[in-house]
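batch job 7 of whatever, protein = Metallophosphoesterase
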Amino acid sequence: MDATPYLLVQLSDTHITHPGRLISGRVDTAAALRHAVERVLQLRPRPVAVLITGDLVDAGHPAEYAQLRELLQPLIDAGLPLALVPGNHDARAPLQAAFAGLPQVHCGEPGATAIQYALDLPGPLRLVVLDSVLPGRPEGGFDEARLSQADALLAARPDVPTLVALHHPPHATGLAVMDHMSLQHGLAGFEALIARHPHVRRVACGHLHRLTLGQVAHAAALSAPSPAHQVALELATDAPLAITQEPAGWLIHAWGPGLPLVSHLAHAGDHPPLPEL
């Protein structure tokens, strides 16, 4: 039996801005994403899809999405399905307009009030994308309509292991400033949603610009680092928000015959193995 694993790459918080601009005058997010895309294309086995969990661009401007599409074009040309998740820095209409007409780029139904959808992957694994964005606000939330739609998406395939993706972390992390901007509204409803669906094996999010591991009901909840800049690990309750150039990275979720859903941290940059002794 072929034991080759299936891979789902999770990028997050790419924060692409206008061409030539730097985030905070220091961080070249375009160069960081270009490097991440190059590394994804080098992965073996070939990923079955690439998930990007929000804050795709920095200000929701059409010109930013145009640059994002250009940077993601090598993945599109390689035929890799892309699953896009909106974050609090995103704007739904310009996001969908930028990728209109590309059947392998998934970003919800045009004109929908929320970008929520399911994608069946081999293995099998089901990816369910949920929209936690509250326009104009940094924190996230779910209303009853979104939770009801999410419930229907999850109930459609109760026999298939499922990864749920959203932007905002659905639990506290101890990063005080970021916790004020986490999933603040409808949190109990989201926890009850996951608890009702035992086939949900993982909840994957972004927003935090660093790797964290938590839990929602029975499911492990992971946040992905950014391929560009990270939020400083400051756990004092009065610590200000600060960014750092800690190693950039992304997550690789792997599964397959004899392999449960396992998530790996991949660092950006070149890290050759040590020479043999």
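notes: Helices lie at 29-42, 62-77, 92-98, 144-155, 176-179, 187-195.
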